[in-house]
Amino acid sequence: MSKVLVITASLRAKSNSDVLAERLIAGARDAGHETERISLKGKRIGFCIGCLSCQKTQKCVIKDDAVEIAEKVKNADALVFVTPIYYYEMAGQMKTLLDRLNPLYPSDYKFRKVYMLSTAAEDEEDTPEKAENGLRGWVDCFEKAEFSGSLFCGGIGGPAEAEGKEAELEEAYEFGKKIV
Asked: Looking at residue 2, what is its pLDDT?
């Protein structure tokens, strides 16, 4: 049994990525994993100031919600980042959080597998590529971790529209079941 941390980046009420994240979590739980979901909605996460103090102390000098999230990321076995695709890239709040996870780089982090679930109104095959590449770049900095898979559910635009997308809901559930 793995401890799976799911971080959702959408700030929209009735978010499609949140709807699909819940199905992914159900799949992961049914596969026997312990899960926790953190939504970035309502969180106070400031921008990294590049001071690099965290490389010596493994603690960020900025005291906000990113500090607690980083501790949960450090202690998870697997991470799932869930983001809407905006302008063919991950949500800005997700990128800001990734930057703020810099204190984990020199730490004894547990996570080994990193996954991504993304949604967008656009439905082209290459829609999630830049977001995936951004997350892969972050993962590449953690030599004990690997980017282990991605699920993109496109053609979903309006609030809560994903609730009626049976195929995508099933895909998210199955994706969650395959997390290791």
From this structure: 94
Which is it for strands 146-154 and 113-120: parallel, antiparallel or unpaired? parallel
Which residue type does 151 have?
L
* CATH value at residue 73: 3.40.50.360
Q: How far is CA 119 from CA 122, 141, 143, 161, 179, in A?
A: 9, 25, 28, 11, 19
d(CA 118, CA 174): 15
Give the strand pairing for 3-8 and 34-39. parallel
Query: Which domain range does residue 142 map to?
Result: 3-177
Q: Which of 72, 17, 63, 70 is nearest to 44 (CA)?
A: 63
Q: Angle formed by the axes of helices 92-100 and 65-74, to 10°?
A: 70
Q: What pLDDT does 1 receive? A: 80
Average pLDDT (73-99) is: 97
CA gap 134, 24 in Å, rounded: 21
Cα gap 41→11, rounded to integer Å: 5
Coil, helix or strand at residue 38: strand
Task: Measure the CA–CA gap between 120 and 122, rounded to whole angstroms.
Answer: 5
- Overall number of domains in the chain: 1
